[in-house]
Amino acid sequence: MQETEKAVGALGRAAGLERAARQRSGWYARYLWVFAAGQLVLVPIAVMWHGPVSAVVFAVTNGLLVTGLSVYAVRQRVMRRGFGVKHGMMMVAWTVVFCLTITVGTAAFGHGAPFAAVAALACALPPAVGAWTETRGAA
User: Fold this and answer.
1) pLDDT at 7 > cutoff 80
2) 79 vs 25: CA distance, rounded Å
3) What is the CA radius of gyration of the chain?
């Protein structure tokens, strides 16, 4: 009988941890919204600017964004089940869109402001969708 009580207690603690992770997982949605907003700045820099100044501004801005988000993520106490897979899929989707934007997009559409605006929105879409689904899943 004592083994059964231990098992029930362990399952209860596991359920409590899962509940806490679900309730506190709003941090990841905020992370993704900031990442999406960063794309609205970084992608036009990458598409429209040229030369060494562009490279330095892009590298510094991107470095600050990634460093800030990484520090924020490391300080979080909980992560939901499946977090790694979800984050990995979102980053793969973003990487594909960003690479296609910079290579194929600029070759086909040039470096103009209209393309930069569309490209920024396209690159912001994967993290924005991820944030939206995370917000819905946490509820």
Assistant:
1) no
2) 6
3) 20
